[in-house]
Design brief:
- Helix 6 links the parallel strand 4 and strand 5.
- This protein is α/β, with parallel strands linked by helices.
- It is built from ten helices and seven strands.
- Helix 2 packs antiparallel against helix 3 and helix 6 packs parallel to helix 7.
- The strands form two sheets. The chain has a five-stranded parallel β-sheet, with helices on both faces. It has a two-stranded parallel sheet with strand order 1-2.
- The protein folds into two domains: 66 residues, no CATH class; 181 residues, Rossmann fold (3-Layer(aba) Sandwich), CATH 3.40.50.
Length: 307
Amino acid sequence: MDTPEQVREYTALLPEAAFTVCRLRVDSAELKERFLARGWRPDLLREAVIEAEALERSNYADVSVDTGGLAVSETARLVCERVGGWPGTLPAVTFHRVVDQQNPPTSQADAAPASEPVPVLWLSGATAVGKSAVGYQIFMQVYRTGVRAAYVDVKQIGALRPAADDDVDSHRLKARNLAAIWAGHRAAGARCLIVSGEAVSAEAVHGYAELLHDVALTVCRLHAGPATLAERVARRGQGGGPTTPGDELRGLGSGTLHRIAGRAAHEAVALDSAGAGELRVDTDGRSVEEVAADVRARGGDWPNLLP
């Protein structure tokens, strides 16, 4: 969010929420260092610096916190202090369905109907096989062809801790959230959807798809051998690759990462034995770009849409 007007676009849809807007800032030198350390899209560095400079002149936030030289945990503690011990005393949990009368939520039925089912590509596979990296690469490839595409990482839409007793894997929560997010994308004109999923059963994946309605689902299972999975788990644990909020591998010790790699190898074998997914694509010794191109080719030049 960059302006008071943009803030109001969000707050107007949640009238029962008490918003506190906190802007994080850092000086240009450290911003450049952090951006380049991501190892992703260095061509966007200048744009990021210009955006940061513009935000320095803004006044939309209630609180501004300088993150220079601070670890994430230190920044989080400082933010909570600056906003008065947020969230403070919490009320009893109640659930309300909030409806904006002027801009009612778009249901699947209200989304622009398609003459044919909308293509949805679900990327599944064992832990650290590369689902998110490949999924986002396919999203980039598709939208560059002129097709309006949507991308959702399922892990990012179900952060609820502790999980509900009757939904310990949060699959029902994530499925409902995915359906709601897709309705918004569809209303905005998206013509296909790429989903990075988890190592769930075929039945669970189709349970997600049932809530999307009128989609042509293709499940592609990415596969890697034990050595490749171990290398990728270790790299993520050391902070390699794009930074993903909530990455459960980041910063873990070598012993724990070794055990996780072993579980990932067992996941891969189990998924192979079950024959999960319509497509199976090996990722050993291949770049993200190569795997993404293979997935699309194996899927019949997915999504088979004309711009």
